[in-house]
Amino acid sequence: MPPYNFLGFKLKSPIWVASQCPMNPHTQEQHVELFRNYLKNGAALVKTQMISNLRHRNGTPRNRARVTFFENEGKPIGFCNLAPIYESMAYLDEGLTLIQKLKALKVPVVANIAVHHRYFRDTHIWMSLAERVVEAEADVIEVNLSCPNLKANMQVPGQDYGLTVGIVKELKRKLNGIPIIVKFTPDMNLARLEKFTRGVINAGVDGITVVNSPAAIAPPDIYNRGKPKFLGVNKYTYTAVHGPINIYLAYRFVTRIYQIMREMKKEIELTATGGINRPEQIVELMMLGASSVELSSAILLQGYQFIRKCNRFLDDFMTKQGYKSYRAVRGLSHRYIADWEQVKFKKVKARIDYSKCTDCGACTRSLCLAWKKVGNKVLVDEEKCSGCGFCKLVCPVGARIVEEVD
Ligand SMILES: Cc1cc2nc3c(=O)[nH]c(=O)nc-3n(C[C@H](O)[C@H](O)[C@H](O)COP(=O)(O)O)c2cc1C
Ligand code: SF4
Ligand code: SF4
User: What is this structure's pTM?
Assistant: First the structure.
């Protein structure tokens, strides 16, 4: 694979593991061993879990987490993680020693930092936390403004424009050349995303990670009078949702940020995270504008060999498709993404392959009205068919063919 230039660091690949708080009590050695396994499986750098400005109080329990899945026909498409955040984050001293230990792994160390919700409007506290992690020799700082479990009045710091831009400006001014990345919250609309992106780029940010997990509420147990599905709790709350269902957020945020970068003629690191659970999604995100990608839920759902699988896929894809650099892939789809007025529709029609059709009728039982039945046989009414392609998704045996007509 071609080497990847990450903010001046030469990496083996543009793939690594996202910032993740461990879910169990652990020793720091165990945590470092986990990072070692990520690297052995092809992760190109290490990102710490969120490091906070707090100090641990004796007796506070650590890393309790309970998980509930969002399911579709028995398959997990996401999961909510009920984890008391002040138990899961790294307290300051732990975070600093973690960085020092990770330095021994000889890859860039990105420190993910987050300030306790009581103080998060105070830029000075963000500054002093950042200074401490730089003293511990973190190579890059990722400002976590977006942890959905770390909120005040349902708000995360990354929803406050002045605070977000102010923190980036101050960090860039005081931290003498240390690259600064901000990690955005998905809990904002596209108009706000544009404002925030322009703001942080103008403030000199080096990279954006999109996106953190959205805040969600886990589904209740309908066979147990609406109680939580989480085991061993009396109540539950809004928590982060991770997993494959987040992928649309990654597509959306990456695409819009890349458009804005191009309009501003500024090229920054744009790391995609959120829902990546198939290697193909890495290339999709790159074509939509990501320069690098990080895996999170996939590591929990598929194990850390998934990093190796992604690197292999990317390597193979680049060679077979004839791409010599990641730059050649980045943003490729943008020539096809436009405003509504520029979208032209060509004629597309559906037909049925009767050698496969079992007359099950599935394609006649939805919003499509472009069908008729002659005897038992389903026919497509050509006049009415708009070519939307939905029947292709609905047909269980692949008998629906939808194709461009000219
Ligand atoms: C167990 C767990 C812990 C996480 N801890 C952090 C964290 O400390 N800092 C952070 O910025 N993001 C954290 N995240 C969010 C991930 O970095 C990532 O942005 C998010 O999970 C979206 O990707 P996914 O949908 O593939 O899970 C955590 C995610 C998980 C699953
Ligand atoms: S392509 Fe769309 S409109 Fe045409 S038959 Fe299929 S579902 Fe109906
Ligand atoms: S869904 Fe497929 S198999 Fe069933 S009637 Fe329609 S075309 Fe035939």
Answer: 0.96
